[in-house]
Specification:
168 residues, three-stranded antiparallel β-sheet, 6 helices
Length: 168
């Protein structure tokens, strides 16, 4: 079973755009804004740029505080990226290809950080007073989250009823 060339292109172009936006935003907060040396820049009453060196993955799990752990996380994330690429290559649904492109671009963006810096650069700090609904994140994290939500939404709520009826 093979996906459509248009879906492959969509997913790969989106992955490249996410990777570029992620790396550009990290460059901006690191070099011109000098966020690492400043720690935090208040932008609005609900959004700050806050320097965080993330040595783990989602929600601080799998923290890699050794060089070996770092490379194991790079390898694990690379394997996941390969799996997402294979899925994208076979995907026939445009919305799923869109979600997969977001996930792939975000995963590669965080791999690049881990290879270059030994950690992922997180900086987006969304808050409402003292309430912080998210950990400090970056463009790659946001893309991965949105991509996974698209895939979950489609898988759980927008199933192709014709295909489900045929499978039964």
């Amino acid at each position: 079973m093979t996906g459509t060339p248009a879906n492959r292109r969509l997913g790969l172009i989106l992955a490249i755009l996410v990777l570029a936006a992620d790396q550009f935003s990290k460059y901006m907060v690191t070099v011109p804004f000098g966020l690492k040396g400043r720690g935090q820049i208040v932008i609005t009453s609900f959004f700050n740029l806050t320097w965080v060196e993330n040595y783990g993955v989602s929600l601080g799990m799998l923290t890699a505080d050794t060089n070996m752990g770092r490379w194991l996380l790079v390898g694990l994330t690379a394997l996941i990226s390969i799996g997402v690429t294979v899925w994208l290559w076979r995907e026939k649904n445009t919305q799923d290809a869109f979600g997969l492109g977001l996930v792939l671009g975000g995963a590669i963006g965080n791999i690049v950080d881990r290879v270059r810096f030994s950690h992922v650069v997180d900086f987006a700090d969304l808050h409402f007073g003292e309430f912080r609904p998210f950990l400090v994140f970056n463009v790659a994290d946001a893309a991965i989250t949105v991509g996974v939500l698209i895939l979950l939404f489609r898988a759980l709520l927008v199933r192709d009823k014709t295909k489900v009826a045929q499978d039964a």
